[in-house]
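[job 4471] stage=fold_predict status=RUNNING
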Amino acid sequence: MMGWYKESDGRTRRVFWTTSAGWALDTADGLVFQYLIPLLVLGLGITVKEAGLIASANYFAAAIGGWTGGWLCDRYGRARILQLTILWFSFFSFLSGFAQDFHQLLAIRVLQGLGFGAEWAVGAVLLGELVSPQHRGKALGTVQSGAAVGSGLAALLAGPVAALFEPDMGWRIAFWFGILPAALIFFVRRESDDPEVFREAVAHAAATGERHSMASIFRPRLLRITLLTALLSLGAQGGAYSVGNYTTAFLTLERGLSPSVAGVCVLLLSAGGFFGILTNAYLGDRFGRRFTFRAFALGFMVMASFYLFAPLDSSLWALIPVGLVYGFFQFGIYASFGPYFTELFPTEVRGTGQAFAYNFGRASGALFIFGVGQLAAYLALSAAMAVLAITGMTIALIATFLLPETAGRDLISMRDLN
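[job 4471] inference complete, writing structure tokens
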């Protein structure tokens, strides 16, 4: 798995650790709000409905910020915009701890979402352009495993750390830890860390006067790739959201677990996800992007169905190991996005295209979350979760049959599309 790391130069290793830490802390900043909702209800006096509105607004802001950040890194450089996005989301995560009411927290979390959505795409593009084609999946997949670390860190901050203080202070301190990622900007060098392939594209654009806007990914030469990657992202993320966002509710309402025990079970899913991401990273380079997406989508559908419908009752001896395998596929599928999207889009609009596709799926996936809630009025919660999860992954599978295989190939430019 890490043989590529030994072959990398100092710049690539430094960027790898910076993007890995950035993604882990970015994930923690994004999830800590969800884990803090009970304390926010008590300490800040907001309602659960208001908390849901803040979370939804944050995700939609992340989609806008991601697309914008991707375009900015195409225009002004990968390393420079990575620094900006890290500093942005860190500052507003920290500022969240000073909110005095619902409206202030809503505004701050919307602003935080702009940087939160951009960091993944910019970091993935930067590292993806530095790593050799045969190792791109392993490198970016290992970075993606930071999401599992971030999830655990968020649970730690929102649980044991926040519990050390009064309700009105605990959630504030958990948010204040969000300033820590800002230190990562000192490990990125603005111009010298930009990959050679990007510098060549900039030089060619300067010589020809060619300019690309945020709408360039919708031009005829790229429209098919843009639509299919957005569809793939929508299906995979929407399917995962359909189960992931209701797992605690399912375990308490249908399996009969207490909220605290259900929370531990959900946290352990991240452990399975960590190994799923690393496995995906290896398989993607070995057997191809499309094969790996399909394997994890099918594995997710099988294990999610088993987790939801098998007669496991409330036995932790059964739920925990099954949950680990289910988490392996739920989180593991995300490792395919970075290398595949990096290889599908040309250098001149790689940040724009990759950020749009990934964040389109992230934002539109909210429709699957909403759909589960609506369908649960007519079906059991587990059945509603399964229907939407299988629908989403089926959409993702269809997209893989319409997209080309890219594993091992050199990165393309707009000139290659002519």
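[job 4471] summary: The chain has a mean pLDDT of 87.
[job 4471] exit 0
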